[in-house]
User: Fold these one by one.
Assistant:
Number 1:
Amino acid sequence: MALREKLQLKLAGAFEKLDNVPVNAVFVSVNDSTYSPETGVTEFVEQFTAQVVLDLVTEADRLVNQGALANGGGLGDYKALAQINKLGFIPKVGDKLTIESESYYIIKSETDPARVLWTGYLNKAGAVNNGLG
């Protein structure tokens, strides 16, 4: 068994132990698309549902990520964690998550070196003009 597979199993076990803490999130992403002002439609939208662990951004997060979180992010925003092998794609900055009818926009997206855990920093006001607003 490869190292990544071992890490995925360990992370899956950790998510299972969290019981009802992970919540379902609907991810929406626009890839290589164009927004048509005539129709008001953005082409090529991907969507999937995955479980995430949601937490408030802490002072430590804000200090470590000053560059990314300084413009529209920081305390009061959220950090989401998800198992990469459960995601339909790796979310990117500007993608939208909806959790229990609340919409959030990714203002920073990163993975660990083994690409097992995705971390996204979310902001309600972080919408970018990509047709998801």
Number 2:
Amino acid sequence: MCTFQTLSSVYYNHWGVSCAGLQNVMFLISCYNVFFCTFIVLIELECMCLISIVPLMKWWTLRGTSLVFAALLASHTAYFVHSRTWQVFQDIASISLGMCGGAYGLLGICGGAYTEKSIMLADLEAERQREVDAVNKRWESARSEI
């Protein structure tokens, strides 16, 4: 955390390291976190356009991991906000995201494994059906040539 002491309009922390670069990095991380949280919200709304791009987001354990990752990003950026109210809000938000992510992970390991297994089996069955259809199509085309 930076304790700001102005010395020729450059901010230094108590170790004498410039905080200006660190604030820019934290700004980029917070922008990335906003993008990542928007992605999570769209996944939670079961937006099929995103789930078709990232089919693993159907899995509860991966959703939980992404929520915990977003919580860790949010918890570090809370200390670069100058308002104590916003720091508390961001701390509560990151703790809530972490708890939701932990619950998703726990449910994914305990009960969601059956759902994940059924999704994997459905995907495997769909792939098998596509292969059978392709073989049948080749067989019919070869048979019609005779």
Number 3:
Amino acid sequence: MSFNSNWPRWIAGSIYKHFITNKGSYTLFVEGQERKTNLLSDFLELQWDGPDIDLYPSDEYNAEIEICVRVFTTIGRDIYLIDKMVGQAMVGFTKTIPVYEIEDSPGTQIGCLQLISGTLRTHRYGVERPDNKILQSTVEARYKIDL
């Protein structure tokens, strides 16, 4: 099979669709999406790095992608809100994420992203700028797919 230039878009669109359906009641943005966060006290941001694609001699491809959900909440309303939001973000990190050909309508499934090692990493950053009182945390995991 030859390289398909649509793979990065199909993977990105499938990740977004998967996480938007698992966000609970929280607002979810994609990194780079225009937004007015000054109107929100709590929200999630979806980011990913990759896909990093390996070519094997048999003309097969393997891709890996790092997915990250950033969590933002304002200090003072609920001391456990950041933990509740981190927990909801973790819901989206399932063992597999179906990847579809994304066109005008949902297309054929081309495979599944598979969680590598089964580990979800959480990092707490606390308040990075004391003047805005925004707590930040991330949930991250690495996935792979054979194409």
Number 4:
Amino acid sequence: MNNETESKSEPQANVSKAETDAAGQTKPSFDGMKNDQIPTNAENVNALLKYHFNTLLSEPTKYILLVTLSLYFTGFIIWHFYLAHYGVAGVGFLRVEYASAAFCFLFIFFSLSVPPYLFLTIFGRTAYSSGGLFNIHQWDNKTYAYTLMVWYFINYELIKLFLPASTLSITGFVITIILSLFFVLHVCFGSVLFVKAGYGRQFMWGKDVKLTEKQLRFQNSKLFKYGNVTTYTPLYFGLLTIVSLFFNSDIDKSFLFVTMGYWFLSSRQLGISLKDTWPKSGILLRFMICIGVFLSFLLYVNIFSITQFGKIPKGVGGGKPENVYLVFSSQHCGAAESMNLHKVNNLRSTNSIFGPVGIILKTENEITFINYSELNTPKVFTNGFRLIYTTNLAVTSISHTNSNPANPISTNIVDDTRPNVFYNSGGLAARQIRADLIDGIIYSR
């Protein structure tokens, strides 16, 4: 009897947790209930499905919202630092460019930081456990080779997509030619060894071809193992990847070093583990750690914004200025001339064309651009004035005249010109103009 009483009391407990709708009917509520307490009878199927649906979407929705806000904030910081480099501040917060800049930043960061860390980690462990670097032909683990080939492919696509106008320096070009020549010679030498070892006959007539004892001994010789080009081909591609990064004209060396060494600095290899330090830290130390991490993040984003963001085309989320010519009507030419824009002669129209300029950011109300004519200007002269110093004044008179005026004679005249000189050491400064003052924009490549 006690068991029956307890079994009958369970539905009443569930009903007590239920909600009542407008019609007076009870609707089951599963908030705070465990999985084994959720009713599964037919009348509560809809409520059960709704409960599981909300449970599945609650956590992913929070993470998606957090990631979206983080990406948007990162893009806002990138554009803020980038525009501040040209002297512009006060940009709006809600812009589509922020999201694209954040994705561009993350793609470049992971493409430059993850492959070298994985390669050096795998390569070092394999060399330590497989007999050292001089016995690389005996290594069974070829993961390092796959890592190098993937790194080469990622680097090729990265430069082609994000830095299409970049070139190699003269030193990098010479090193690339030397590596290519060594690779070609190694391939030729390896081909000779391939034929001498009997693999050429097996390639032509199949594996059932009998080889001589001399060919079998040659296959096990050190010369054949060290001359096998297939073992060292990934290393050649890895060296070409490093040369293409360090000698690229559009990649800043400080940004490259910081990015490639990021995971080494944040890993256990330096003896510092934030994962182990955080649980043992107090409130004050955790607060200091958060400040340090945030400031490090801002410093890195600042380096990226100043050194790399302006070299990436806007089509892939960058901030590279768009080369354009601005068309002004006759009544608005004064605004362009006051900004020292170079005027292009146009005899066929009453409008005037000024440029070339580089548009950094364009909104509905204003356009922010830089004037390329100031790119090579070392200094700017304004408000020049002239000083004349005279000494040894003498007064003379002219005789046999009705008037006797005094004519001063000046000697030792020193002519001195003192213009106000402003050195343009800070680089280009941006300009803003109202969009309604411009009649047209001519884009150029």
